[in-house]
Amino acid sequence: MDRDLQTVFEKLSFCFETRKFADLRIVLLDLEPADIAQFMENNLNEKEQLMFFRLLPKELASDVFIETDTDTQERFIKAFTDKELKAVIDDMFLDDTVDIIEEMPANVVKRILKNSDPENRKQINELLVYPDDSAGSIMTTEYVSLSATMSVESAFERIRRTGVNKETIYTCYVTDRKKRLLGVVTVRDLLLADKSELIADIMDSNVITLNTLEDKEQVALKFSKYDFIAMPVIDKEGCLVGIVTIDDAVDVIQEEATEDIQKMAAMLPTEKPYLKQSIWSIWKARVPWLLLLMISATFTSMILSHYENSLALVANGVLYAFVPMLMGTAGNAGNQTSVTVIRALALGEVEFRNVLKVIFKELGASFVLGLTVSIACFLKLWLIDSLYNKVTIEVAFIVSIVLLLAIMMAKLVGCILPLIAKKCKLDPAVVASPFMTTIVDVLTLVIYCVISIAILG
Amino acid sequence: MDRDLQTVFEKLSFCFETRKFADLRIVLLDLEPADIAQFMENNLNEKEQLMFFRLLPKELASDVFIETDTDTQERFIKAFTDKELKAVIDDMFLDDTVDIIEEMPANVVKRILKNSDPENRKQINELLVYPDDSAGSIMTTEYVSLSATMSVESAFERIRRTGVNKETIYTCYVTDRKKRLLGVVTVRDLLLADKSELIADIMDSNVITLNTLEDKEQVALKFSKYDFIAMPVIDKEGCLVGIVTIDDAVDVIQEEATEDIQKMAAMLPTEKPYLKQSIWSIWKARVPWLLLLMISATFTSMILSHYENSLALVANGVLYAFVPMLMGTAGNAGNQTSVTVIRALALGEVEFRNVLKVIFKELGASFVLGLTVSIACFLKLWLIDSLYNKVTIEVAFIVSIVLLLAIMMAKLVGCILPLIAKKCKLDPAVVASPFMTTIVDVLTLVIYCVISIAILG
Fold this sequence. Notes:
The structure is a homodimer of 457-residue chains.
Chain A: H1 3-17, H2 21-29, H3 33-43, H4 46-55, H5 58-67, H6 70-79, H7 82-90, H8 94-103, H9 106-114, H10 118-128, H11 135-138, E1 145-146, H12 152-162, E2 171-175, E3 181-186, H13 187-192, H14 199-202, E4 210-211, H15 216-226, E5 230-234, E6 240-245, H16 246-264, H17 279-296, H18 298-313, H19 323-346, H20 355-388, H21 393-423, H22 428-456
Parallel strand pairs in A: 1-2, 4-5
Antiparallel strand pairs in A: 2-3, 5-6
């Protein structure tokens, strides 16, 4: 945390504890809502939080409310009077209200809807219909719309009149009577144009749009590709139904990256910050894969049992000692590839049609990588491992060859699995990463046992 | 890829091949620069790309140039005449010029600087001084500055006069004569204010600022925390030296997530898209860790060799069969934790001062997780593994107990390593994730061998 912010927090704590509420408000007015929420959650207990929230200047209350985490929001709503709740909700943008509603239990949702304006309630209900991972679920209906026949001057008037409650005013949307999107015009265009010009003449009619049902991951990629600060969302009929703003896209980008990282590390994704997760929710997220992978390791046990006697008999039984090294290195090699391909798929850099290109690239890379690593391994076996173990040159040779084959196999599995998952519309991060290790483990062991026994036995 | 975009690309290809350049230009004017760059790079060979680029409408050329990848940019610059180069550079924002310069070899940089305006050249040189990962390196000096004594009306005049070449006009910066930052005012504030009001009266003087040397990862976090579309960058003296815009922050967020994912999968980070990487660059990124981890696996070989005879003698030698399962499960368990903590550190959710909280949480979680998994393992050994192997109840018991201990140990190592790395100002993703596996492997083996032999031998 910033040292400046630390100082401000100490001041806040002092004013709050000594009940200097006038001073407190002065400090608060200089702070960003996100910082106030951070202060409340990290420095106050539950009872103090509510008391503190009620002290907030009216114009800050809903902004701070949005920034607190879901549990706090739920607690607050349950403690609010209807009047308090209504004040907070009325001041929020609709997409934020919808985000909150989506996380709340049914009885809390009911109270929120009861305390919303009838007009807002209608729009909230419309927004709630969209699936959780769609563009519709992160859009807001509060945008500035203009008509094509307006002059620049009357467009400014309209922005002045209606802009206060809009999430962004910098991109305005030109629609016809049926709400079909005709074009966009930015405040920059308006400022640089002549007052008497018509919107139709300065608007950009080639608009990159989003569809209501488009995956929000796709939405985030479009934002990072095109560098817009807002994008319009249209329905099947081509009518404008809302906009997505860049700040929501940024949240999606962060969340999607976190989720992919969690999935690749064999966990169920969760949006909650780590320190807020209970031991029970950690258990729930981690136990399924841990169990599944433990049980699937039965295959490696079976292979080792099967070859047990043969392995113990040849080469003075030294072969066992290199099983972890071989499986570990193959696992690392496969992981490098699967993670690379999964991320490239997530960023839209690679698609299924690139499958051959990817396979050839990985085959080439895995051969030179495998060669380097297995030559190094041969030298290591010969120079280091022979010091503590009865490694013959024959054993060193077998282990190194198996290592080369295992690395190439692992990289092939690592690139094909995510691509197949993508093709089958499964999530590459879930399917490919945790599963890959098991497949690679089993295949590495089989290659090792078969080759050693063929040569030595 | 969108089907619409696909259709447009086919049209472009057709116009280009049949040399219908007038039609081509009409299609081009309706496209976003990012799409044109994508078309060039995916559908044309190197010679065609240059020819195509020269056909671009003048106002699109630099925007498309910025969107192409570094190799293409270098090829283009080398092929450009001085006049062409100057035209492209003059049309770019300074931060984009600097980004390009940072990737180019010395002789290309020289040509770029030679062909820049003297005024721009001075600013470019100033921007080039900042370290690669700092706020200074991603900022631009092209912002709108206002003075506090201006009226709203004259502020608008100034924006109209100077705004064309600014990266954003929506947030304006109020500075004094020495360029010290006094406050910010948004175009929204200006539009909603009365024309005769003074900037000093409507500006927000509590500005969240960035420092020139602040880590760009930190910059990205501030953007996602505060939801701004631009943030001012000040130097040590408090003078405004530039701004960072949200589109650059979005790129940083994507890059940082990709880099962390690469590091956690034991690779050196690279910014190049996967399909553009040569086999040689893939080799360079992957071989160091693969070698290091292979060599560090010597420890597991040593331990297995050391206990070889004892392990073979007790329990009919079945103990070997469970080594991969134990090491694999412990590795997965440790990885879940280290990846969670590394991501939480990257998002600023966890700091070193939370170390005890994290350890207690992981101890608790690892105990319930370990208990669940080892009970399941006991049942599996008893019901499944005994079918193909001489597993006694004693062996099943030992393996399950070792599994519980190994999971708890792995999760402890997995949470402590990243926190220590962070404290030592090392990169948690590099230090913690690849290293963790080796440590966990070794410790799991030691626990297994010592306990089995103590009980059975």
